[in-house]
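Second opinion, please. Please look over this fold, written as tokens:

===
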Amino acid sequence: MEDRATEGLDNADAPPDVDLSRPSIARLYDYVLGGKEHFEIDRRAADALYEAVPETSQLAKDNRNHLRRAVQWLVREAGIRQIVDLGSGLPTVGNVHELAQEVDPDVHVVYVDNDPLVLAHGRALLSDETTTTVITADVREPESIFAHPRTAELIDLERPFAVIAASILHHLDDDAAYDVAARLRAQLRPGCYVLISNFLDDDEPRAKELERAFLEGGLGTGRFRTWAEQRRFYEGLEMVEPGLVYANDWRPDDRTPAESRVHTLYAAGVARKP
């Protein structure tokens, strides 16, 4: 089994509004990335994933690595200066605003999550920021995200912006995922971009094993979709080269792993509203 963080939070450390009766996607993701903002229930759910695929941590790292490359491409090459990051999760190394502002310090970023721990940590991290904020909202109600007062303060919806939906749609069932994707596309103006990454079912047995671990191991969500199913998320948009591909094949650089044992379990793409 892969080495991973074992230290985390005790239940007594939980704020009153944190539900410890079920695992949190944000806290579980923090755990598999080696963070410390997780509780026993999150670690138990993660154990089911490691039982199915011992390289689960690498899957999260490959996704994070793709996010780094894509965000910096959006700012450096596409000229995007406004980003809305859905389901942003707990702060970690290489946050989206840090990645974007390495290229241009004036990039505005709105983080969106529904986990109270994310909100608390985000507010503490961003207390002195004027270009970045975090809001509590549900990705299943995209209109409320773009109508939020803090979003309106930082994002000019009449100018090009990018929406990040990394590791989000695979935690929704089919009806909800396609509905959310369509409603997100409806928010885009010409020149806007969307970045999507998801678990992939490329006809490999481990995809079904890991999906079962997500669904039955405590988290209850985690859908591995085929290439054809994932292409539906981009209907009406123009794909940026190289299109919808394995995440590590999306514009790899010298920091992208040359080999990854979970290479075929994750897909990613960036698309533009024409």
Q: What stands out?
A: The chain has a mean pLDDT of 90. The chain has one domain: 58-203+224-272. The domain at 58-203+224-272 is CATH 3.40.50.150 (Rossmann fold).
